[in-house]
Amino acid sequence: MNEKKKKIGFKLILSSLLLLPGLFVLFIIGYNTKYLIRLPFFIIISILIGILMCLLVLGMIWFIKNKQSNQNKLKKWKKILLSIFMTIYIIGCIGFVVLLYGPNDRFKTWLITTAMQTMNHQYYCKWFYNEDTINEILNSNYVEESGESTDTSLIEKHEYKYKKDTYENEYEKQILDVEDDIKYQIIELEVNGCKGYLAVIYDPSKVKIAVTQYLGTRGQYVTQMAEANNALVAINGGGFSDPGHNSAGGTPTGITIKDGKIITNGEYGSSGGIIGFTNEDVLVLLKNTTAQEAINMGVRDAISWGPFLIVNGTPSFIKGNGGWGYAARSAIGQRADGIVLLLVIDSNATRTKGANMVDLTEIMQNYGAINAANLDGGTSSVMVMPKTIAQIEYNAPCNDYRNDTYCAINDPIDGALEHQTRPIADAWVVVE
Question: What is the mean pLDDT of residues 6-32?
């Protein structure tokens, strides 16, 4: 009977040591967010911690009194393994708490700014932080746009004669040191350890909007929209409504214009606005403009999204990381000579890296954009082209079974960490 009591006592100590660190983590999380405070579960955790502390104290008293008789109960190798496991477990719990609430705000800032800009993953940060903390971080990381709209007189289209004797910098040389009859080129980049692709389009009249064939019902993959338009290259466009988070993606956000006709006429937020091309092939970024006003201004193709990164040569003021965190990103811009820049930046395999608004702005500035805007990002960020070119020139895996003729040259990753993109509502396509 005495032996049985000893075993029970040892199990109490071990169970208490295993449960206490985890419960302390939950207690601290509950203290820092309303997510658990509103639930009786938080009270239960507090009671359990008190009970386990008492059991641990009683167990330790028992262990000290019976130290001599218990010192050989476990084999040496079991003691070593148990000690290693407990050390890793306790350090892991402490490290997790320090990561979330420690003096260094880097992880907190990344998590909040990244999660709060998603459509259906905001709970990732709401699990750990209350509303005041979230607002404090967001107020320290934002994009302050100028409020101006594009001055179209700043864009002067040039014919296909770009070569010069000297170039201002390496970026201008990359753009202009090309053959006169070139239609586009792809410049490969690296941003924060992630791959990026900048499509340089020399004739802005070839950049148009493609919209899902199932408008209002479900989206299409960019490969499908590219194929339908016989595109040379295509990237994703603006955001879209996704009621129920079912990934239908069939309704573009805000205003959509295609071939001079209004396709959707919804509202868009204070960030960004209309991103479109006029009949003179000038990229315009328009604030506080209605769909009909855009048509009257001669806008032929447009979407709604943002934020605007550069307007009339002046970059937006960006505080911190811009409030959008790090993720896969897409952007569009235009140089003063009319050349259009389509940019896609990948994330990493765990979707914890990528580009922020500062990165996008710097790249667009480096390559001479005087107007540039952020497009939809995350799983939507994709650049596609004909499969034969993608495989030969960019070693693209082209494992997308949905299309036999087009595939992505970048590596989009979805929420399940699968290497695939998703159906969306619209895309920018570069036609023949």
Answer: 67
